[in-house]
Specification:
Layout (H helix, E strand, L loop, with lengths): L8 H20 L2 H30 L10 H9 L4 H20 L2 H4 L9 H29 L6 H13 L4 H25 L16 H32 L7 H11 L3 H24 L8
Helix pairs in contact: 2-3, 2-4, 2-11, 3-6, 4-6, 7-8, 7-10, 8-9, 9-10, 9-11, 10-11
């Protein structure tokens, strides 16, 4: 016979959890953490500006020796600039702070998981916030990897991982599924761009009304460009799964090069580069008027 919980145990446990969450929120809601998160958003913008430049160099064949046109390539490029080591530390710590600040939103929504009427909405918001925090945290750690002098080639590692997965049972299906997930992420970014849902991440009450159309326009262009690039990257993974050829499975850099290789690709890739730059400006607007609440 299974033991039963005393009727008063669960309320006491929930009270202790709420107390712990309240203390955690004091940290994640601290003004200094928000200031550091703003640094992280500026870092996020700088990274997109650099990706835009690297994509532009691919489109116009400016520098054959330029780094890969992806997040790792952008951070490597920034690290090799004057004062790059200090810059990488600032970017890395800022992005990690941004990850903690973004994850803190879960502390506001977790109680919704206990309410059957709001459980689905709360779960969606929590997953969304944790996903954003994971992305920011991963980029922050990657910046610190370069800051300590280590090397990381995202395109090469993606290729090697894909090759390893293809070698296991049902590996082609796993790679194909991963490609479909990346395509889904690209589609989600496109939907965000079309609907303007990204404006929820900007504190519209603080931003002057005259700036809102510009912020929204830049955000739309940026999200559409990122969505297209991710969709192509996912498509290349699916292609690798079907053909068992990992040559094209190189992530964002592979997508950039694939776009540049099609007819009129030079102009298409230029448009993508401008889109990433537009997203960088939007990220700067977020840094100036941040709002982490996805329900606003």
């Amino acid at each position: 016979m299974s033991p039963r919980l005393h009727p008063g145990v669960l309320p006491r446990v929930l009270d202790r959890v709420r107390t712990a969450v309240a203390h955690a929120r004091e940290v994640t809601d601290h003004p200094w953490l928000e200031r550091l998160a703003r640094v992280g958003l500026v870092a996020y913008a700088v990274m997109h500006f650099t990706i835009a430049w690297l994509a532009f160099t691919v489109a116009w064949r400016i520098d054959p020796d330029a780094a890969d046109a992806d997040q790792a390539g952008a951070l490597s490029t920034l690290g090799s600039s004057p004062g790059g080591l200090l810059l990488l530390w600032v970017l890395g710590l800022g992005l990690l702070s941004l990850a903690v600040w973004q994850a803190g939103e879960v502390l506001r929504w977790w109680t919704g998981l206990l309410d059957p009427d709001h459980r689905l909405r709360a779960a969606f918001v929590c997953i969304k916030c944790l996903a954003k925090a994971t992305v920011y945290g991963a980029f922050g750690l990657l910046a610190l990897v370069f800051a300590v002098g280590a090397e990381y080639d995202a395109a090469e590692n993606t290729q090697e991982l894909t090759d390893d997965v293809l070698g296991v049972p049902l590996g082609n299906w796993l790679v194909g599924a991963a490609g479909l997930v990346v395509i889904g992420v690209g589609g989600y970014l496109v939907v965000r761009g079309v609907t303007g849902g990204f404006m929820k991440d900007v504190d519209l009450h603080a931003a002057p009304d005259r700036y809102e159309p510009t912020i929204e326009g830049l955000g739309r262009v940026g999200y559409l460009a990122k969505g297209a690039a991710f969709a192509v990257a996912g498509g290349l993974l699916v292609f690798a799964a079907v053909t068992s050829d990992v040559a094209t499975a190189t992530g964002l850099d592979g997508a950039v090069n694939a776009i540049g290789a099609v007819p009129t690709g030079q102009w298409l890739l230029t448009a993508v580069a401008l889109g990433f730059a537009a997203f960088g400006v939007y990220a700067l607007a977020r840094a100036r008027y941040p709002d982490r609440d996805p329900s606003s």
